[in-house]
Amino acid sequence: MKVTLIGAGSTVFARTLISDILTFPELAEGLTVALMDVDAERLRATERMTAAAGVDVQATLDRRAALDGADYVFTMFQVGGYRPATVIDFDVPKRFGLRQTIGDTVGIGGIMRGLRTIPVLLDVCSDMAELCPDALLLQYVNPMAMLCWAVARASSIRAVGLCHSVQGTARDLAADLGVDRLDYRCAGINHLAFYLELMHGGRDVYPHLRAKTDIPNWNRVRYEVLRHFGYFCTESSEHLAEYVPWFIKSARPELIEEFNIPLDEYLLRCEEQLAQSVPERLATQRSDEYGAEIIHALETGESFRFNGNVMNDGLIDNLPSCCVEVPCTADENGITAQPVGALPPQLAALIRTNVNVQELTVEAALTDSRDHVYHAAMLDPHAAAELSLEEIHELVDQLLEAHSQ
To answer: Residue 310: its pLDDT value, please?
Structure first.
């Protein structure tokens, strides 16, 4: 079995995925790991730790060589890198008074990241169609929903988008409630899905969650949305704060303090991660990422349930044709998404405000339409709450100019 990692210079995440695969003896036997990145130094770091584990590893700067004959392909790259691309996504909007926390999903940062990433991901899919047409694409790159939507529209490659927000938040909520684990049913779109059911030992824990007064300081945004919408969101408070129009306002600095919103958080995280030493060995314990579990299920037929990002082909009744995050099962029959029915109407309405931005960004990328970039930005909830139409138009122009340099 050949597993390919595109963006393997992301050493920490590559380490996690490779380590997870090796925790399954039946996957480790006969395994070849192909590593590809544009950064030769970081690629070598991932190659060294993989080879040290006794794995047959192929490291290359040539994407086509890495994809040739692959059975599974992980995408985990950041087009344009932290510098200059991500820094531009934060610095230019600041001139207009538009602040962000993460900037990788929707918002002006998510739009720009989507525009520069969709063409690269579609090039990967084009190479896969030629070199490994039966391979499964395990897509981890953000903006998740935009990218998976673009792949579904413009490629024949089998793909599923994967994130750790659903299982990670469920773990955090179990800790908040003082229980060992929670059972749940969850659906929506990536980074804006909601736990429709939260259970412990067959008992609904939502009444206890809604009654909590000892709210973690780092999670105030999500608990506030729970209070008003009735359900808990899967993605972190720093993410959620920039998907909606109510929390980050230049004229309301008290909201930033009240809800403990970490502006420029992603820039700080990138700086901290770049300053850390590169790991030298693979991990010995399995993480809660879905990727290796899915491969194991497909290879062995041992069923695995997870939340995946797929197109809404009759899965959520009151969302349009878009990329949704829903319960899925992987087994010997492949990956099967489970229909959810209709979401509570207030959740569907909230989610559609983000779907609008995703749809227009995908359309802009696939048709090379500058107008649709403006439209996506103008309909973004956060940008629209802060800026006028003319200001948003000028901001888009400045961002596109900065990224063209």
So the answer is: 98
Mean local confidence (pLDDT), 161-170: 98
> Cα–Cα distance between 8 and 94 in angstroms, integer?
31
CA 3 from centroid of its chain's CA atoms: 20
Pair of tokens at residue 393: 């138009």
> Phi and psi of 346, rounded to 5°?
-70, -35
Per-residue model confidence as pLDDT tens digits over 192-229: 999 999 999 999 999 999 999 999 999 999 999 999 99
Q: Helices 144-154 and 345-367: crossing angle, nearest 10°?
A: 60
Beta bridge partners of 327: 307
Task: Please choose, from the candidates 345, 307, 304, 305, the residue with its C-alpha nearest in 3D space to the C-alpha of residue 324.
Answer: 307
pLDDT number for residue 278: 83
What is the C-alpha to C-alpha distance for residues 250 and 230, in angstroms, rounded to an integer? 27
C-alpha separations of 33 from 38, 77, 312 in Å: 17, 17, 32
Side-chain half-sphere of 318: how many Cα atoms within 13 Å?
12
Is the pLDDT assigned to residue 404 strictly greater than 90? yes
Domain 82-100+164-405: CATH superfamily is AglA-like glucosidase (3.90.1820.10)
Q: What is the pLDDT of residue 386?
A: 98
Sequence-distant (6+) residues with CB within 8 A of 317 are: 340, 341, 342
Name residue 73's beta-bridge partners.
4, 137
Task: Specify the DSSP element, H or E, that contains 244.
Answer: none
| Confidence category of residue 363, pLDDT binned at 50, 70, 90 | very high
Options 164, 208, 393, 403, the catalytic residue: 164
Asked if 393 is an active-site residue, the reply is no
CATH tag, 2-81+101-163: 3.40.50.720
Residue 350 φ then ψ, to 5°:
-65, -45
Report the run of H or E that residue 56 belongs to, with start and end: strand 56-60
Structure tokens at 126: 């084009």
Residue 280 pLDDT exceeds 90: no
pLDDT digit string, tens, across residues 148-158: 999 999 999 99
Q: Is the pLDDT of residue 96 over 90?
A: yes
* Cβ atoms of 33 and 53 closer than 8 Å: no
| Axis crossing angle, helix 87-94 with helix 265-275, rounded to the nearest 10 | 150
Domain boundaries, the chain: 2-81+101-163, 82-100+164-405
How many angstroms separate the CA atoms of 247 and 260, rounded? 10
The per-residue pLDDT for 388 is 98
